[in-house]
Amino acid sequence: NYVNLTQMLDVDSIIPHLMQERILTSRDKERILSKVVHEDKAGELLDTLRRNGKCTVDYLKNVLRETDQTALLEKLQEGPQSKKKTEGPPGTLSTGKFYPTSTH
């Protein structure tokens, strides 16, 4: 799902939501937006979220809904539901992958 996220994620529209909730700092935002290629921006955002551990999968899903990125959300929900994350607290983004902690 990392590939889907880097290709389809509208980084510019979700950054304000992540900053409002203090999931991202101004420095994070500058680093992410300094990337020129879309996939690099999305990759930097995902790497930052994974590193800081502040963004839950449920919150990311809500932001995708709020920013009208439902096609990406649907694509992600088609992904591997049965796989378990190998690191990170439950419900957080870990290893750059999007695995919901529940199927509901």
Question: Overview of this structure, please?
Answer:
This protein has about 100 residues and is mostly helical. It has helices at about 1-10, 10-20, 25-35, 40-50, 55-65, 70-75. The chain starts with a helix and ends in a 27-residue tail after the last helix.
Write the layout of secondary structure elements.
Layout: H1 2-8, H2 11-20, H3 26-33, H4 38-52, H5 57-66, H6 70-77
Give a quick set of tags describing it.
disordered C terminus; mainly alpha; single chain
What is the approximate shape?
Answer: globular
Largest pleated sheet: none
Q: Give the overall average pLDDT.
A: 81
Helical coverage, percent range: 55-70%
Which residues sit in consecutive blocks of at least 5 with pLDDT less than 50?
A: 82-90, 94-104
Structural class by sheet pairing and helices: mainly alpha
